[in-house]
Amino acid sequence: MFGYHGKILRVNLSKHTTETRNIDEEDFRKYIGGVGLGAKILYEETDSNTDPLGPDNPLIAFTGPFTGSAAPSSGRHHIVARSPLTGIFGESNVGGSWAVHFKRTGFDGIVITGKSDSPVYLWIHDKGVEIRDATNIWGQDTFDSSDHLKDATHKKATVAVIGQAGEQLAKIAGITHIGSNVRAAARTGMGAVMGSKNLKAIVVYGTQKTPIANPEGLKKSFKPVRLHLREVTKTFSKFGTSGGIENYEKLGNFPLKNWMQARWKSVSKVSGFTMHDSILTGKTACHSCAIACGRLIKIENGPYAPLEGEGPEYESIGTLGGECLVDNLPAISKANELCNRYGLDTISVGATIAFAMEAYERGIITVDDTDGVELTWGNADAMITMVHKIGKREGIGKLMGEGSLIMARTIGHNAEEFAVHVKGLEPSAHDPRRFWSQGLSYATAARGACHNASWGHAYELALTMPEIGIPEPQESYTVSGMAETTAKLQNTMCMQDALVICRFTQIGKGVDVNNVIDWLNLITGWDMDTDEFLETGERIFNLKRLFNTRLGISRKDDTLPPRFTSLERTGEGLNNKLPPIGQLLSDYYEFRNWSEFGIPNQEKIDSLGLKIL
Amino acid sequence: MDIQLHGPLASIAEKNIQISLSKAITLRQLLNLLVVRQPGLAPYASCKTDIDLSAHLMVYKKDIPLKIDSKVENNDHLQFFIHIMGG
């Protein structure tokens, strides 16, 4: 077998046992890796009664065939479990160096079940797997824990670690990955799943290479694409993800004031351009990446100094900044760093604080609830105080750590009307009133409001993918073709998350589907064609849907929050329209061969080879 | 034609650029003219296709993004933003 080790590591923390299991090449070809195999195992090993924070919920991390191959921007892995935040399919994709170091230990994936009696961490290396005591670092933040763990294992190791938020089961807790850079598997509460197992960290370092079917052909194929990718992403690399903020505000895509506002005079204060000219000291890249979108910053003066390390990304600035109307970049940077340290999802944290600010403005919560904090729009110190409270689960932070939906239900007064989420997951910083494809994908994505499920905004603006049947960009504010484009993109994004490769390789068509199929075949020795590639993506998407179907998810849940369907924003030059979600959903279900209730038809299930499940 | 540059573009070239056109041209042709006149814009404006353009720039006319083959005329007012698709 090429491209894989053919082995997964299973860890039972209740019994403190480990074992190696083989995976057939047939399963790799059918589900690829990453989210594909992760979803298959999660489906098979859970049922509708599995408690997301119970010992039977497996925490699964999977690499893909591209991992370690030097394919551009493939230093990533995918983590899945039943989500404690949403109660449905949980998943988070993360870059950095963990995936490559883990795969070099001789495994393609890891499945962790059970619950340890006391805090532990895993140390996985060339010679084996150790379950070690973590009592002395339990309660420490992720950065301090990582320092300790690297000292105790290997200085070049990469650490996937939870902070205080995950330890205390905050449902918006993520897993911080610290190696050559800092990256977070932030979404859907995977940090809480790890905390529920008393698992502080997974530390990896290995040196074993994965066999490649045609290494010379692969090297030859990579070279021109890597050069092209570097050229087309030079602007992106220069200004980072947050370089998009000013134009996205112009387009009406940038979230402001809990998604109520469309225009913001302060937008330039928080943009990647301002970061570039003020606090930026350098760039970081995930393993094998030709782009280097990560920011390194240093703040030496002012109330948020000293601060040095990773800077905030577009999504983090959109939520901690735009949604809260905080126009202070150092303050946002501080909140971002705190989220990394506590192990929190910046998107859900920022969105939940914005929701709380609106509840405060409406008088639903008061200073009596906030421990005296004036939770007003634009109050940077209040925003940072709330991050601390969520991370430590103190005062109102305990409730906020449950996410905006649970908070809304708890505080009552019809607050659910302005809790912006889909299926319990707060959206990333892309507005469905500007990009309907994102609205449709928010409504139908397995984990809830996820922009990465389709990346539809890019395909409404300019990108095309004729290789999968998208020869022209999707026209915005148009029902015709919207569902088909969205579904095709969702299937293709599932393949990106299975292989595993970064979304940003799509910028300027740096990497196209033909490149990806070519590399997959050169790595594995397979003869996969475009049809099989697309069917595999569709299989993975439907498998995730079937996981949710088993939990009762249907059309009734495939909705957008009232703010996106009934609040028409105004502003100079704004050109937004409310998405007709009902019509889009019906078209979407028909294209996918799902029932009008959003359930995959048996014929579809059978044709995708999912009958066995 | 009046061209307004936003963000870092305004510090690379003049914030407001006036160009006189005798006839309608495409955005692609306009970008070529601009690069000759303001070489500092070359890293962002040397675009041949819509996909090239989407990796660097977004150009608006009456608040609507233009495509590379969109026609522009002498009396147009255009706004140029650096565009970054990621996030």
**CATH architectural designation of the largest domain in chain A:** 4-Layer Sandwich
- Biggest β-sheet strands, sense, barrel of chain A: 6 strands, mixed
The chain-level structural class of chain A is alpha+beta
Mean pLDDT of chain B: 95
Q: Tell me the name of the CATH class of the largest domain in chain A.
A: Alpha Beta
Query: Largest interface by residue count?
Result: A-B, 46 and 25 residues
Q: Order of SSEs of chain B, N→C? A: EHEEHHHEEEE
Strand order of the largest sheet of chain A: 2-1-6-3-4-5
Number of distinct helices of chain B: 4
Helix content bin of chain A: 25-40%
Rounded radius of gyration of chain A (Å): 22 Å
**Cα separation of the termini of chain A:** 25 Å
The CATH architecture classification of chain B is: Roll
**Distance between the amino and carboxyl termini of chain B:** 33 Å
The level 1 CATH classification of chain B is Alpha Beta
Named CATH topology of the largest domain in chain A = Aldehyde Ferredoxin Oxidoreductase,  A, domain 1
Quick structural summary:
The complex is a heterodimer of chains A (613) and B (87). Chain A is of the alpha+beta class and 613 residues long.
Question: Topology of this protein?
Answer:
The complex is a heterodimer of chains A (613) and B (87).
Chain A: E1 7-12, E2 17-22, H1 25-31, H2 34-45, E3 59-62, E4 77-82, E5 89-94, H3 98-103, E6 109-113, E7 120-125, E8 128-133, H4 142-152, E9 158-161, H5 164-167, E10 175-178, E11 182-185, H6 190-196, E12 199-205, H7 215-232, H8 234-239, H9 245-251, H10 272-278, E13 280-284, E14 294-299, E15 307-310, H11 314-323, H12 329-342, H13 346-361, H14 380-392, H15 396-400, H16 404-411, H17 436-444, H18 456-461, H19 482-499, H20 513-524, H21 530-550, H22 562-566, H23 581-592, H24 602-607
Parallel strand pairs in A: 1-6, 7-12
Antiparallel strand pairs in A: 1-2, 3-4, 3-6, 4-5, 7-8, 9-10, 9-12, 10-11, 13-14, 14-15
Helix pairs in contact in A: 1-2, 2-19, 2-21, 7-20, 11-12, 11-13, 12-14, 17-19, 17-23, 19-21, 19-23
Chain B: E1 2-5, H1 9-12, E2 16-18, E3 25-26, H2 27-37, H3 42-45, H4 50-54, E4 57-61, E5 64-65, E6 71-72, E7 77-82
Parallel strand pairs in B: 1-7
Antiparallel strand pairs in B: 1-2, 3-6, 4-5, 4-7
